[in-house]
């Protein structure tokens, strides 16, 4: 009996399938083919694992960007629940919740209109300054200026204003917006402090504006600190004291200088010879000649009430004119510089590490 056309087709297909199977078997038995299959399998498994790895990396990045403090590999400082503050106007010591005190300092030191990251940087600096003063007082006693408390509410330490004082000074509307914004910035950094190589920063100093560059601590004060070194402060366009002029008649100038330094002798003719002799790395006047006397820029600044020792001086027709940039001693963090950095996109940790060289936040 002859096979049908369909039967012959099925037989031929089956025969070809057997041949193909045998051919594939022989190919797969070759060492090179086995190696290629192993590589393909490994690549497939790796690609399957990539999404999980990316997810983990993204998770870690998101966590690091959240602002949460990283864990230190050294013993960090424990903050007190409350702090005693000398209230200068009432001549009394007040016990204040520590974080509430930090909120009052940030409110007293910088405008609430500042960028949130600048407010957070100020909160960490103020908290660090306070913690260091408390520790120092525990070890060696309170300052002579306020022997009953480690801190006061003036520029001798840090300007502090209570919630009630701020309401009276700034009004209810500010409390709804400004106070709320500052509280949020302080709460976001609660407990965080500045450390340098495993030790709490002792001098978290700050000032209003630098005039473009901060100072080495030893060029202004007695001691050198490795984290208080001169750095550029380029984003201070909005600072309140820029190219500010202060002019004095000879009588005014003579009275102010001789009141501060009674042993100095000079006359009106000496005004034309007033000259800056040297400047610090940060650009502030180190020494200035007035007649036969040589004073520091800081001494002249304080005697004349100038906003900064970063000044130039000119004398004409019996008038002495000082042109200055910046406000404050110029050491540590420039508050307007910090705000400028924040406006440029820097976060508070970057701001702090810039102005306090080599420090970290924990």
Q: Which terms would index this structure?
A:
alpha+beta, three-stranded mixed β-sheet, three-stranded antiparallel β-sheet, 10 helices, 43% helix, globular
Question: What is the gist of this entry?
Answer:
It contains 10 helices and 14 strands.
Detailed description of the structure:
The chain is an alpha+beta fold and 362 residues long. Helix content is 43%, strand content 16%. It is built from ten helices and 14 strands. The protein has helices at residues 5-28, 31-64, 98-109, 116-140, 163-170, 172-188, 250-260, 297-304, 335-343, 348-355; strands at 82-87, 92-97, 151-152, 194-196, 199-200, 206-207, 244-249, 275-279, 285-290, 293-296, 311-316, 319-324, 333-334, 359-361. It has a three-stranded mixed β-sheet with strand order 2-1-3. Strands 5-4-14 form a three-stranded antiparallel β-sheet. Helix 4 (116-140) crosses helix 6. The longest helix has 34 residues, at 31-64. It is globular and about 60 Å long. The chain starts with a helix and ends with a strand.
Q: Largest beta sheet: what is the strand line-up?
A: 2-1-3
Mean pLDDT: 86
- Secondary-structure class: alpha+beta
Number of helices in the DSSP assignment:
10
Oligomer: single chain
Shape: globular
Low-confidence stretches: 1-21, 41-67
Q: How many strands appear in the DSSP assignment?
A: 14
Distance linking N and C termini? 95 Å
Order of helices and strands: HHEEHHEHHEEEEHEEEHEEEHHE
Fraction of helical residues:
40-55%
- Strand content range: 15-25%
Radius of gyration: 34 Å
Largest sheet: 3 strands, mixed
């Amino acid at each position: 009996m002859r096979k049908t056309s369909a039967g012959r087709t099925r037989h031929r297909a089956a025969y070809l399938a057997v041949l193909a199977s045998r051919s594939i078997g022989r190919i797969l038995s070759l060492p090179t083919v086995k190696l290629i299959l192993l590589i393909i399998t490994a690549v497939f498994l790796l690609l399957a694992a990539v999404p999980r790895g990316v997810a983990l990396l993204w998770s870690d990045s998101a966590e690091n960007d959240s602002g949460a403090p990283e864990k230190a590999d050294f013993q960090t400082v424990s903050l007190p629940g409350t702090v005693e503050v000398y209230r200068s106007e009432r001549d009394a010591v007040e016990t204040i919740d520590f974080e509430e005190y930090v909120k009052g300092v940030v409110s007293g030191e910088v405008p609430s209109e500042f960028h949130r990251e600048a407010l957070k940087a100020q909160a960490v600096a103020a908290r660090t300054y306070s913690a260091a003063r408390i520790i120092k007082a525990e070890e060696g006693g309170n300052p002579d200026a306020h022997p009953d408390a480690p801190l006061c509410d003036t520029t001798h330490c840090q300007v502090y204003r209570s919630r009630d004082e701020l309401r009276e000074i700034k009004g209810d509307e500010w409390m709804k917006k400004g106070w709320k914004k500052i509280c949020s910035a302080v709460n976001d950094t609660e407990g965080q402090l500045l450390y340098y190589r495993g030790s709490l920063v002792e001098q978290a100093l700050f000032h209003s504006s630098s005039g473009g560059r901060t100072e080495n601590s030893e060029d202004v004060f007695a001691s050198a600190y490795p984290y208080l070194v001169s750095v550029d402060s380029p984003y201070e366009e909005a600072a309140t004291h820029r190219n500010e002029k202060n002019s004095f008649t000879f009588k005014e100038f003579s009275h102010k200088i001789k009141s501060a330094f009674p042993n100095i002798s000079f006359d009106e003719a000496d005004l034309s010879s007033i000259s800056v002799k040297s400047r610090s790395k940060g650009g502030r006047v180190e020494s200035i000649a007035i007649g036969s006397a040589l004073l520091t820029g800081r001494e002249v600044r304080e005697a004349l009430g100038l906003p900064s020792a970063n000044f130039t001086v000119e004398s004409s027709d019996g008038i002495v004119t000082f042109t200055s940039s910046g406000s404050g001693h110029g050491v540590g963090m420039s508050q307007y510089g910090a705000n400028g950095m924040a406006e440029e996109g820097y976060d508070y940790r970057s701001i702090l590490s810039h102005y306090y060289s080599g420090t970290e936040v924990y």
